[in-house]
Amino acid sequence: MKELYAVNKYFIKYKWLLLLGVIFVISSNIFGLYTPTYIRYAVDIVFENIALYKLTDGFAKQAILKTYFNYFIMYFACIILITSIIKGLLMFFMRQTLIVMSRNVEYDQKNELYQKYQRLNTTFYKRNNTGDLMSRISEDVSRVRMYIGPAIMYFINTGALFLMVIYMMFNINAYLSFLVLLPLPILVYSIYKVSDIINKKSEQISVALSGLTSQAQEVYSGIRIIQSFGIHQQVQQDFHDASSAYRQKNISLAKVDSFFAPLMLLLIGLSTLLVVYIGGKEVVNGNFTAGNIAEFIFYINMLTWPVASLGWCVSLVQRAEASQKRINQFLKDDNEIVNTAQYPIKSIDTIKFNKATFIYPDTGIQAISDLSFTINKGEKVAIIGKTGSGKSTIAELLLRNYDIESGSISINQHNIKQIDLHEYRGKIGYTPQDVFLFSDTIKNNIVFANQIAENEEILLEKAIQFAKVTHVHHDIMLLKQQYNTIVGERGVMLSGGQKQRMSIARSLFNNPEFVLLDDCLSAVDAKTEKTILHNLQASLKDKTVLFITHRVSAITHFDKILVIDEGKLVEQGRHEELLRNKSIYYDIYQLQRQKNDLKNSNM
Ligand SMILES: Nc1ncnc2c1ncn2[C@@H]1O[C@H](COP(=O)(O)OP(=O)(O)OP(=O)(O)O)[C@@H](O)[C@H]1O
Ligand SMILES: [Mg+2]
After folding, report:
1. Is 363 close to ligand 1, i.e. is its CB under 6 Å away?
2. Separation of 367 CA from ligand 1 center, angstroms?
3. Per residue in 269-280, pLDDT tens?
4. Partners of 568 in the beta sheet?
5. Ligand 1, atom 9: nearest CA belongs to which residue?
6. Is it true that 341-427+512-603 and 438-511 share their CATH fold?
7. What's the rounded Cα separation, in Å, for the pair 578 and 561?
8. CA end-to-end span of the chain, whole Å?
9. 271 with 265: CB under 8 angstroms?
10. Is 127 near ligand 1, meaning CB less than 6 Å away?
11. Helix or strand or coil: residue 565?
12. Does the pTM of the predicted model rise above 0.90?
């Protein structure tokens, strides 16, 4: 139960609902408790007076006796009806409080988890797959809800009912009570066992189902590759295998499931049999009335379902505990970027890396070592370097997607760990290297970061403006639905270059102070690149820019060029200076020029 302590805070939060719920549970049981007694009265009256009734056969008195009978039976029927209605009402309120409480907790817990997700850093997301994150927030939370709602409700209900009924039964006949209660522990245990098996099998089924789903999902995403490699038959076979394993698991669950009801009925039947057999003997001995037998059978029936639910509840609690354990693991994960927000960032004046060193926690690769450089407001800075040299890592560190190992990164003289991260990131327009588009319209993808509620027409106008800057407007207008085209999952309908250009338009949309473009033109041809760079020059005039690239030709006019190699800064300066140095930058330049010459001569 230790893991479930984590949800105690919610019981405190919803203490009034919980308390009311408990009161409703107990009072509903009190109202149900006397039904068997009334039935005993009614049965006894009939039994005791039936002989008298028969004796008066043929006399006028018989009619009076009949009215008298009818009156009593109607009287008890009415009492039973009224108490049952009240019991029913109280049960309604019991669900309205306890189950409503569990739904509230579910809502809170989902939000708590989601907030945590928002704060966790990239390492966490690299470590855990999407399926896991989804199942924590959906399946695990709803299992915990089963503990907070139904399990607790049935526990209280069974506890209250059990004490009351046992008290009533022992008052009537202790010996018989003891005997008929004997099968109950077996019932609880066997139901617990069966529920446990059912739960385990259900879990396997849900794992199999999620495997099947992600398998299908991957096939849909990679369908172009699968078809072009002509391996669809093999893929079909894999799917067939997985889906027949899924079917097998379901059939096996159905088998166990069908044990459940017969098992219950068998054990209830056993208790009833004992009541009738031993109770009958007691009636003969004169210790018991026929009404008592009826009463006992009712008590047994009242007890069996709740007691049986105990077994079920125990397995619910076990499942909830396993789920809460997983949730706790996520909540305790400290791969978190904490926004301490000690210093507001009204504008980004300087960004300073000071001997920054960073190692990727999972691979242990030292991506950045001892790196120092400064970017001042309004400067156009470029980073160039070989593939794998650490360029994208610099961008990620600058956004504080990770925290560095040693050294420091400062924004306006404040450590990046102390600034208001939300405000800071809001001033940056970032185009990541691996472009991501949401499966939404092109327009919505571009206006994505828009924080001011503006009307749709103005938004569209602005989207067009930025699409023109990034030279993608023409491409969009060729589509049938133009800006309202849904780009498909991850933008599958668009070419790599189109996606990149839309992504740049998105990063410019909010008029950020600082624009961070990571290799954002790798998928466009040299001519388009030139046009875009030309357009960008005008729109980025007053902004601070950090431009990451492989191509020297794109950055010749930049204020500062940082040459990165194996995570270290090896050279920095303006294009002409660096050429004069005749070092690494010069080599890259020469190499790329030769390649271009070669290309041109081949054309
Ligand atoms: N998420 C990650 N986890 C672990 N290691 C990583 C991760 N991302 C990058 N690396 C490693 O860090 C090093 C630097 O990678 P980075 O992506 O910064 O290079 P890059 O200069 O941007 O390369 P490219 O020009 O190909 O984009 C590489 O050795 C890479 O393998
Ligand atoms: Mg990169």
Report:
1. yes
2. 7
3. 888 888 888 888
4. 565
5. 393
6. yes
7. 8
8. 74
9. no
10. no
11. strand
12. no
Chain CA centroid to CA 507, Å? 29
- CA dist., res. 233 & res. 231, Å (int): 5
Answer yes or no: is the C-beta of 364 below 6 A from any ligand 1 atom.
no
> For residue 394, how far is its CA from the centre of ligand 1 (angstroms)?
10
Residue to mutate (ligand 1; options 127, 362, 393; most atoms within 8 A of CB): 393
pLDDT band at residue 603, thresholds of 50, 70 and 90? very low
Distance (Å) from CA 493 to ligand 2 centroid:
24
Annotate 436-466 with DSSP letters as a single string. ---SSBHHHHHSTT--S---HHHHHHHHHHH
* Domain 438-511 indexed as CATH 3.40.50.300: yes
Tell me the two tokens of residue 159: 């506890």
- The hierarchical CATH code for the domain 2-332 is 1.20.1560.10
Name the CATH topology of 341-427+512-603: Rossmann fold (3.40.50)
Helix (H, G, I), strand (E, B) or coil at 514: strand
Task: For residue range 387-446, list pLDDT tens digits in order.
Answer: 888 889 999 899 888 888 888 888 888 888 888 888 888 888 888 888 888 877 888 888
Q: What are the sequence ranges of the domains in the chain?
A: 2-332, 341-427+512-603, 438-511
- Amino acid symbol at 438: F
- Round to whole Å and give the CA distance between 603 and 600: 5
CA 201 to chain centre: 22
Query: Nearest ligand, CA of residue 391?
Result: 1
Strand residues in 154-301 grouped as ranges (E) = none
* DSSP class per residue in 96-162: HHHHHHHHHHHHHHHHHHHHHHHHB-HHHHHHS-HHHHHHIIIIIHHHHHHIIIIIHHHHHHHHHHH
Q: Are 348 and 377 in contact (CB under 8 A)?
A: yes
Instruction: Please classify residue 456 by burial: count the beta carbons closer than 10 Å to its beta carbon, then call 0-12 exposed, 13-18 middle and 19+ buried.
Output: exposed
Q: Which residue has the tokens 């209660």?
A: 181
Beta bridge partners of 352: 374, 410
Instruction: Judge if the beta carbon of residue 272 lies within 6 A of ligand 1.
Output: no
Indicate if ligand 1 lies below 6 Å from the C-beta of 367. Answer: yes
